[in-house]
Design goal:
Layout (H helix, E strand, L loop, with lengths): L2 H19 L3 E6 L2 E7 L5 H12 L6 E2 L2 E3 L3 E4 L2 E2 L7 E2 L18 E4 L13 E4 L19 E7 L1 H8 L3 E2 L2 E2 L5 H5 L12 E9 L38 H10 L5
Antiparallel strand pairs: 1-2, 1-13, 2-10, 3-13, 4-5, 5-9, 6-7, 8-9, 8-10, 11-12
């Protein structure tokens, strides 16, 4: 074998190895600061591919954070503000197979889904603000376990800032007063929402998998289905938000 041939084979092998162990990094630009997520490409491939398709299609651009439960989750990826209530649902693709490989600890990103339907995730995702793996939340076990598919590697302080914004119902709404929240006829402006302006693939080539410190979900197959925590809006704690949101704003607003 010539040196040239050996070099070509080595380079090809390195390229394959790099591809197989790469972990895509995506960056969220929001009205309250940016954050980056390192995705588990290899171990949750269906979930990551689904998430990246929404990103590449631009579906997450100009959507809003529609739910915050302090010390629990920040949820987004499903709605946009088009000038009036209720928020408009974005177009979604088919639901995907659940991949509950990793534990729902603080700083992880996971898929939201419909109650009592393990394989129902489409576009909505949430960031765990606390360790929600067990206890009253038990996101590692309920509804088949919620699929963690990445970790926040930069900007978690900005997510905490969003979580601390006063809420109208469960929606974080900057510069929105209690009186405005209680007035069903008052329509807020774009500045009153936490807007996800863009989501881009920040790094799709560099091997970043070795920098992740993911915790495996080892409890899913042995723990019983828990009761959802009282702070949840139903649907296995992280249900889709459309039905709740449509009725809650129109019937009664509550500022927190």
């Amino acid at each position: 074998m010539t040196f040239s041939t050996f070099s070509k084979i080595s380079i090809a092998a390195l390229m394959i190895a790099s591809t197989s162990s790469s972990a895509t990094i995506v960056e969220f630009t929001t009205s309250q600061g940016n954050f980056k997520v390192n995705l588990h490409d290899e171990t949750t491939p269906v979930t990551v591919a689904n998430f990246l398709k929404y990103i590449n299609d631009g579906d997450y651009n100009n959507t809003v954070v529609h739910r915050v439960e302090p010390e629990f989750v920040m949820q987004a990826g499903g709605f946009e503000f088009s000038g009036d209530f209720p928020l408009r649902s974005i177009t979604t693709d088919s639901a995907i197979k659940n991949e509950p490989v990793y534990s729902n600890v603080r700083g992880t990103i996971a898929m939201a889904k419909v109650a009592n339907n393990e394989n129902s995730a489409t576009s909505q995702w949430f960031v765990n603000l606390s360790d929600n793996s067990a206890g009253s939340a038990s996101l590692d076990t309920q509804n088949g376990g919620f699929a963690v598919f990445g970790e926040i590697i930069e900007g978690m302080e900005n997510i905490d800032t969003i979580a601390a914004i006063p809420r109208c119902n469960t929606i974080p709404m900057p510069d929105f007063t209690a009186a405005q929240c209680s007035d069903a006829n008052f329509v807020p402006g774009t500045e009153n929402f936490v807007t996800i302006e863009t989501v881009i693939i920040f790094d799709a080539t560099v091997n970043t998998a070795g920098n992740l410190a993911a915790i495996k979900n080892t409890s899913k197959t042995t723990a019983p289905e828990p009761t959802p925590p009282k702070s949840a809006s139903g649907g296995g704690s992280i249900a889709w938000f459309s039905l709740f949101f449509t009725g809650a704003i129109a019937l009664r607003r509550r500022f927190k």
